[in-house]
Every structure is written in C-alpha cells, then in structure tokens.
Amino acid sequence: MKFVVLALLVAGVYGCVSPTVQPVVHQMRMVVAGEDVRPHSWPWQSHVCGGTLISQDWVLTAAHCINEVDDYRVELVKHSLKATEEGSVACSAAKIITHEDYNILNDTALIKLSSPVALSDTITPACLPDRDVVLPHGTPCLVTGWGRLSTNGPAADILQQAFLPVVGHDVCSQPDWWNVLATEKMVCAGGDGITAGCNRDSGGPLNCPNPDGSWDVHGIVSFGSGEGCNVLQKPTVFTQVSSYV
Question: 129-145: per-residue pLDDT in tens?
Fold first, then answer.
C-alpha cells in the first residue's frame, strides 16, 4: 500500500496544468453518453478500459478493469478509436498494481508505463484533489470516455463527455438510491434519468472544474445500474480519488 500511495504522489513531481485546448461544455445535452468532445481537450484521458494519466509514466484506472489474462496497452492522444491518428501514443504496461483490498470497494489500480511519455499540449497529467476533499452536492462535473451511447447500444467511436452533477453521500446512500453500496469513499454523480456514464466508461475520470479554470479528477468510474445507463436515482458511482491520494 505504501508503494501505491507513493505512485499516486508522483503526479506532484511533474505538476499539472489546464488543458491548452479548453473543453466546450453543453450541460443539458440530452444524450446518455453525452456529446463528442473537442479534440485534445482532455489531455490526460487514456484508453485502457478508461484511465487518467497522472504523471509521465503512471495511469490511474479502476481495479475491475484489470485481469491476469490481458496484456495491457495504454493509448494516449486518442479522439477516434477507429481512426489512425497522427500524434497518438501507445505504451505497454511495465507494472500493474491493484488495490490490495479491492472487492466492490477500493476500486482503484495503477498502471506503470514501459517508458515515460513526453508531455505536450496534447499529453498532460491530470490534477488531483487534496486528500479527503469531498465535493458538495450539485458540483458540476463531466465524465469522459468511449462508453455505450445508449443502454445496450453501440460503443462510441469518438471520445464523449457527459455533464453529471455530484450527488452528495447523504442522498446517494438513501434506500431508494444506492443505499449501503454508496460509501464515503465513493462519489456519486448524475441520476437524473437523462445523462449518465455507461458501460465501457469504466476506469475513466470524473473531471470537476476549479474556479481558476483548471480541472481536478475527483473520480474513477466504478459502477452503475444493471438496469440501464440513465436510471433515475441510480447515478454513476466513482471511486473517490481524494480518499486514496
């Protein structure tokens, strides 16, 4: 566990900056998986399940994305998964660390890249929140990923973003919401029955804005409702990054 904590702190060595290409946010776009992102506006997004670059050679993702069979390759600077894109970077995994107490809880993992990536306008580590920061109810955040575009629908080709306001723990843990499955080490977001993360967004970031225009990654996509992607009172549930920094 000490090694995991030290790896998470590596992000502080390189620092983090606001995206050079700023995201365009349409909060009320009524599509489950959201809308196409502006290319390179989320320069820490990786494709390995979903993931977040937190330093030149570490990617943060969900433990449930990891198994002992697959050889993992992390792709950065991806916009379309089908197209061959100039400037995209693919790295193999040198080491994978899953949280030692992972079950449905502690759904976090780290992937060390085989070699450090060169930082640029299109590859930037994410900013992480301070330890134990808890977002207030209603905080406007965005989930990003290549998940399904609708319940049981096709997966996205173009990276998507969806507006998900945070649902406070007092609400999310109510019996008709997620009840005891929502712990204080998780962040709930969405649940309005309109916009949501969806299958195959797993491991990706919950991006939340700061007053200065920067973004912190507060969550790792962990689970959602088995009934569909936009079920009322069943928000997407994220591992709360601030509980593990």
Answer: 999 999 999 999 999 99
